[in-house]
Amino acid sequence: MWLAGCLDCGKMKPQIRIFSGLALACQFLALPVIAAEASTHKLSEWKLGKVLFGEKITKTDLKGKVVVIENWGVHCPPCIASLPHLAELDQKNRDKGLRIIGAESQGSTKEQIKPLIEKAKVEYTITAGAEGPIQVTGIPRAFVFGTDGKLVYDGQPADSAFEKAIDDALGEVKTAVVPVATVASGPLIPMRAWTNAEGHEIRAAVKKANEMNVTFQLADGREATYQLDKLSADSRQVIAAALKPKQ
Q1: Mean pLDDT of residues grouped by 10 in the chain (247 residues)?
Q2: Which of 39, 61, 105, 106 has the highest CB neighbour number within 10 Å of its CB?
Q3: Domain 2-170, what architecture?
Q4: CA-based angle 180:181:186, to the nearest 5?
Q5: Which residues of the chain does CATH 2.30.30.700 include?
């Protein structure tokens, strides 16, 4: 009964309402921790709900990234308590290849969710739940996937093993040795229109780029560095083509 209450605290049936004052019991759930070698599950087996807040992402966008899917809920105090820490992890490691997805699992409205994530300064993607091959019987529940898409951690985000799993997986992201493509005599890509994932457009030349970031040079000479995965698919393809070695 407690497990069901944690997942549906806001819509509990009368017979389990006696547990409404025990929402904090969520933090005492003993969730399993799965080692990489013990898991056969992959990120491709999970289906994300509708994006409610943050960047819209696809499975292609997550390829080669370290991905965290955290099942949480508006009516679960331990879930709310973990939001600032997850926001900090996101801000510290996004450029290193980490992607966090907060799957709100209690069917809450955007109006209920918004003040909580604004207070915690959450900028990562929030979705209307997520479905996978592992049954989630209590929240918060976090799944960490390595760069190869394999599940490397299953447990609570407050557990020290959670952050260690992220750090270990990020160690496999090859960002430090990514060569930077640039052309000494001029821009890597001449002035043209570029669009970001939200459809906004700018005109700029590309001075340099790698597999993570691109440095735009604006018409007035100013430079601006932008995360590659925040550009539209078409813009990323143009830059990827410029990064390919010439035959």
Answers
A1: 41 33 38 53 95 88 94 97 96 92 97 96 95 94 96 94 95 57 65 86 87 82 84 89 74
A2: 105
A3: 3-Layer(aba) Sandwich (3.40)
A4: 130
A5: 181-243
